[in-house]
Write a structure and sequence with these properties.
The protein is α+β, with helices and mostly antiparallel strands. Helices cover 21% and strands 38% of the residues. A hairpin with an 8-residue loop joins β2 and β3.
């Protein structure tokens, strides 16, 4: 591969280039960190604790939005790209350095941050709750897991020959896993189609005291996780510990997809991606279940 050589003329151009002609935004990375939260143990001997999908939120300790809940994140440093920013922030907030981490959206709507022109790259992060040690950063007052539930309602569907509009409302409910505090928000999505080309926009009707545009980011992160689980499926393994039962794996899929799965079909589909260990789970109210782990050959083929 030939390497581009900077000419003398180009060096002179760059030397005299005035980069103050254009305003520059600040860049941030915001992370929607999901985990499967274990429920409390029940007195029923044979019943497993209920599990819920959880998201990590940080209570802001300073202005703007002081006292509001927000996604973990921070400003990008000059010597790092946004992926590195997200990895650094995730390590600082959860002590996790090997989580699934993938960008899913850029948020740049004017006025989204009262401090100025700030563009955020949002990341989807999946962790095992048991391996995380959440901690509030220097500008946060608290950090906690919230159980997340999102319902949707189609408000409008208008379809013509060459264009269409579909308006959907997403109702977001977040419940603090320890105190029971509830945060509710309402986000509207508009999908417009002209000659079959799609444009999508969002409007926050009620932020529920979530900071910035994080109500929208959370809804879109949840939708991204759901789509990836329904499509490829293997993403759910990043919510699991190193060793797991097939029951707990199926339960994680059902929580994310919001539907019950037929056990024989699920186990047949998932069989290539798991390897049985010689261990069983103990301390449960039913027959000890076998533990499995990822079949890495299937993941990296």
């Amino acid at each position: 591969m030939k390497k581009y050589i900077v000419s003398k003329e180009e060096k002179e151009f760059l030397k005299n280039y005035d980069d103050s002609k254009y305003e520059k935004p600040s860049l941030t990375a915001d992370m929607a960190v999901f985990a499967i939260l274990k429920g409390e143990e029940t007195e029923e001997y044979r019943k497993d604790p209920e599990q819920k999908l959880g998201i990590l939120l940080i209570k802001r300790g300073g202005f703007p939005y002081k006292g509001c809940w927000a996604l973990p994140g921070g400003f990008s440093a000059k010597d790092e790209d946004l992926q590195q920013t997200a990895m650094r922030e995730l390590m600082e907030e959860t002590s996790v350095d090997n989580a699934y981490l993938e960008p899913f959206g850029v948020f740049s709507k004017p006025g989204r941050d009262p401090r100025g022109w700030i563009v955020s790259q949002a990341f989807l992060a999946l962790v095992d709750e048991n391996d995380t040690k959440i901690s509030a950063g220097s500008d946060a007052g608290d950090a906690a897991w919230f159980k997340i539930d999102i319902s949707r309602k189609e408000l409008k569907k208008h379809v013509l020959k060459t264009k269409a509009e579909i308006k959907t409302k997403y109702m977001l409910r977040l419940e603090h896993s320890q105190t029971g505090e509830v945060v509710e928000a309402d986000v509207e999505e508009l999908r417009s189609y002209v000659n079959h080309h799609e444009t999508v926009s969002y409007k926050i009707n009620d932020s529920g005291m979530l900071a910035f545009d994080h109500a929208e980011i959370i809804v879109r992160a949840f939708m991204s996780l759901h789509e990836k689980a329904a499509d490829a499926g293997r993403i759910i393994f990043d919510l699991m510990p190193e060793k797991f039962t097939l029951y707990s794996l199926q339960s994680a899929y059902e929580i994310v997809l919001g539907e019950k799965l037929t056990t024989p079909n699920f186990r047949r589909k998932i069989a290539p991606y798991v390897i049985e260990t010689n261990e069983t789970i103990t301390g449960v109210g039913h027959r000890p279940a076998k533990l499995f782990k990822r079949n890495l050959d299937a993941f990296y083929e």
